[in-house]
Design goal:
The chain has 377 residues and is mainly α. 77% of the residues lie in helices and 0% in strands. Helix 2 packs across helix 6 and helix 11 packs across helix 12. The chain is globular and about 65 Å long. About 6% of the residues have low confidence.
Length: 377
């Protein structure tokens, strides 16, 4: 087997595994990638990983999914980009498609609350570990610490994360350019318990129409799952393709399953036009991300070579870590609500910081421990 094929196989195995266990949203996905890609396999430096993360936050699409593509590109070239992205997306779409079938056919899904209970506190420890590691590389000066605190404050106040990221980058450029007095030109460039009966027959919508609608959403989507909900509400409910209650159920499925929340598209596509609709929606919403990463990736090292863009990336990288910290703060408030969740979190902190156990096994242990605690007390 050639070196290229060995690398592609490794990329496939790593991101398929992550796709099966990547609960907790983008911040958790990034944390697990840092553990698997940087700490364990050393495919690239943490500084370059930060640059990729900062740049990816500035383009549309699911950022953690796009980071899988960047990592695959860095390790195994263009083929690695597609292998990484597909393998990360695949488990979530398959699980979501199965849930969509059950939802449409039977109108309810099995009890899952006890298993999910322990995953959320475990994810908190994983995110905290990544913040410390990435923050150590991102914070290069006292000025960047101040900028990070400002970004954290703005995020907790509810200011749009994309506006915060771009503003941080611009402030960084202006400040550090002024400080150095250097002028240059740019040289280069709840989960699903007792769901109600599906109250309508499948609305047969053309797969081409489904593909185009989700392609548009994938090409312009910025931000969190709440932003995705707003886009899908405007595109689907207003067309009469789904009721808002059905859309809420679909979003809930995307939040419950591992991997990117955009796997919601698979569920909705199946609701609209069966298996072909699921394929069309999934392909449409993820295709722009593959193209964006394919275009962006070669420019990131050149951006680092430019002094202006170096300032911009440094500022955006600190802002990205600060946003992860804001996510951790909000998730902690929502998750640590009883002694059982605190107990799982403490065990997870020990596993993450006190052992060399993989973040994936931390998720597994958290899930099992959560099940035991919630079932026994």
């Amino acid at each position: 087997m050639s070196l290229q094929n060995k690398r592609l196989k490794e990329v496939a195995l790593v991101f398929f595994k992550l796709g099966c266990f990547a609960f907790g949203g983008p911040a958790a996905h990034i944390a697990m990638m840092d553990d698997e890609i940087i700490a364990k396999r050393k495919w690239m430096s943490r500084e370059h990983f930060l640059d990729l993360m900062g740049a990816t936050n500035l383009i549309p699409g699911p950022n953690s999914t796009e980071m899988t593509m960047h990592c695959g590109f860095e390790y195994a070239g263009k083929k690695g980009l597609f292998v990484a992205g597909i393998c990360f997306i695949f488990p979530a779409t398959v699980i979501t498609a199965i849930l969509a079938y059950l939802y449409v056919k039977y109108g309810n899904l099995p009890e899952v609350e006890p298993f999910i209970f322990g995953i959320k506190p475990a994810v908190l420890a994983i995110i905290a570990s990544a913040i410390l590691k990435l923050g150590e590389k991102a914070v290069k000066s006292n000025e960047l610490i101040v900028l990070g605190v400002l970004v954290l404050t703005a995020s907790l106040l509810g200011i749009n994360e994309i506006l915060v990221l771009f503003s941080a980058g611009i402030i960084g450029v202006i400040y550090f350019q002024t400080k150095s007095k250097f002028k240059s030109r740019l040289n280069s460039f709840n989960p699903l318990i007792g769901l109600t009966i599906f109250n309508s027959v499948l609305t047969k919508v053309s797969s081409v129409k489904i593909f185009l609608v989700f392609l548009k959403v994938g090409a312009i989507l910025y931000g969190s799952g709440y932003v995705l909900f707003a886009f899908l509400d405007a595109e689907l409910v207003s067309r009469g393709w789904l009721t808002r209650a059905e859309l809420i159920d679909a979003i809930a499925v995307g939040q419950f399953t591992p991997g990117p929340i955009l796997s919601t598209s698979t569920f909705i596509g199946y609701q609209l036009s069966g298996f072909t609709g699921a394929l069309a929606a999934t392909a449409g919403i993820f295709l722009p991300s593959f193209l964006f990463v394919l275009i962006l990736n070669p420019f990131i090292p050149r951006m680092r070579q430019s002094k202006l863009f170096r300032y911009f990336l440094d500022a955006v990288n600190v802002a990205a870590v600060a946003l992860m910290l804001a996510v951790l703060f909000v998730m902690s408030k929502e998750t640590l609500v009883n002694w059982q969740s605190v107990a799982v979190a403490l065990v997870s902190v020990y596993l993450v910081f006190g052992t060399k156990l993989s973040s994936i096994w931390t998720i597994v242990v958290g899930s099992v421990l959560g099940y035991i605690l919630i079932s026994s007390f």
